[in-house]
Write a structure and sequence with these properties.
With 174 residues, this protein is an alpha/beta fold. It contains 6 helices and 5 strands, in the order E-H-E-H-E-H-E-E-H-H-H.
Length: 174
């Protein structure tokens, strides 16, 4: 796992090590593209706070999006618009206890993608023509929730997808 940050080791790298996710390789934004190319990481976690250079982040995201199999890119505490392939993670006051679980979930998706690619390579006759469009752009999401996280989750969905309407459990009960 490559951790990208300016100004030393970020606190979330310690949380990843405490969760026994290793090896953790620290790098700066200036060396991030070279590190991704040379190290062949399983995931990239970046400190996406105000010190992030937008042009470098965009270039790194494009480089990561072109890699096969899927390479997770997690942006910790983003304060700007993220590229489409970046997974946002809000620490919630400097608490990174949910980050290892988020990273492990992304690594499971990577494993599934690698399995599909391997099976397609084993039997080229089974390979179907893939559409040119991104199915995520045509996805329908049903968001049902309650509690304090519901409004922020619905806003997050609304920023990435077209939202037709939102209904909370409390509103449904009325």
């Amino acid at each position: 796992v490559i951790v990208v940050a300016n100004g030393g080791r970020p606190p979330f790298a310690t949380a990843l090590e405490a969760a026994q996710i290793f090896p953790i390789i620290d790098t700066t934004w200036a060396d991030a593209a070279r590190a991704v190319e040379a190290m062949q990481p399983a995931a990239v976690v970046v400190a996406a706070s105000s010190g992030t250079v937008a042009a470098r982040f965009g270039a790194l995201a494009n480089q990561i999006a072109a890699r096969k199999p899927y390479l997770p890119l997690i942006a910790v505490d983003p304060d700007a618009t993220l590229p489409e392939n970046a997974i946002p993670f809000a620490s919630g006051g400097g608490q990174f206890d949910r980050l290892p679980a988020r990273l492990r979930a992304a690594l499971r998706v990577r494993t599934l993608h690698a399995t599909v690619m391997r099976r397609l390579d084993d039997d080229p006759g089974e390979r179907a023509a893939l559409p040119d469009t991104d199915p995520a752009r045509d996805a329908t999401v049903l968001l049902i929730g309650r509690g304090a996280a519901y409004p922020s989750l619905s806003v997050s969905f609304g920023e990435r997808m077209g939202v037709v309407g939102a209904l909370s459990i409390e509103a449904a009960a009325k």
